[in-house]
Write a structure and sequence with these properties.
This protein has helices at 26-31, 42-51, 70-81, 162-172; strands at 2-6, 19-23, 35-38, 56-62, 84-85, 90-104, 110-116, 119-123, 129-133, 139-145, 154-155. Strand 6 (90-104) and strand 7 (110-116) form a beta hairpin. The strands form 2 sheets. Strands 1, 2, 3, 4, 6, 7, 8, 9 and 10 form a 9-stranded antiparallel β-sheet that branches. Strands 5-11 form a two-stranded antiparallel sheet. The protein has a single domain (2-172), classed as Jelly Rolls, CATH 2.60.120. The protein has 173 residues and is an alpha+beta fold. Keywords: Amino-acid biosynthesis, Cytoplasm, Dioxygenase, Iron, Metal-binding, Methionine biosynthesis, Nickel, Nucleus, Oxidoreductase. Ni(2+) binds at residues 84, 86, 90, 129.
């Protein structure tokens, strides 16, 4: 697991590392409500799920083949990479492969989280973010939910959304 500021070089593919060379600490992530853990054993994930009342989960494999071919895969990656927020926490545990979550810091800069097998990331509701795979084009992830599984992405800007407003208030305190 590695965290750093995104280089914002739009001339390079979104699946490239985009490492600016400016690292981000766990403390910086916590200030924006992002939690990160490394759990080599799924039993650790089960304990966290019980503590945080995640009652549902599913698994998703993202590859060109799993998405029905290269064209569908590329369309899906574009959707994942559009900046958005959710009204629920987003919890992802990487079972295999590699992917990137980008989140906005308090100054609206992108922080990139490089996640590999065993890494778990919790994004608070209301945080602007996006997701993409690495250049390996493969990830197998577990999604955890506190209620029935849903994935409703609200594209930016939705600053008047009550979950967004609550999030901004929480990180401004």
């Amino acid at each position: 697991m590695k965290f750093y500021y995104h280089d914002n070089d739009s001339s390079v593919d979104q699946c490239a590392p985009h490492d600016s060379g400016e690292p981000v600490t766990a403390e910086q992530l916590e200030k924006i409500g992002v939690l990160a853990f490394h759990y080599p054993d799924v039993e650790d994930v089960n304990r966290l799920a019980k503590e945080r009342k995640y009652t549902n989960r599913d698994e998703v494999t993202i590859t060109p083949e799993a998405m029905g071919g290269q064209e569908n895969y590329e369309k899906k990656l574009k959707v994942f990479y559009e900046e958005h927020l959710h009204e629920d926490e987003e919890i992802r545990y990487i079972l295999d492969g590699e992917g990137y979550f980008d989140v906005r810091d308090k100054d609206d800069r992108w922080i990139r989280a490089q996640l590999n097998a065993g890494d778990l990331l919790i994004l608070p509701s209301g945080i602007y973010h996006r997701f993409t795979l690495s250049e390996k084009n493969y990830v197998h992830t577990m999604r955890l939910f506190q209620a029935e599984p849903k994935w409703v992405a609200l594209p930016r800007p939705v600053d008047n959304n009550p979950y967004r407003q609550e999030y901004v208030k929480a990180i401004s305190a």
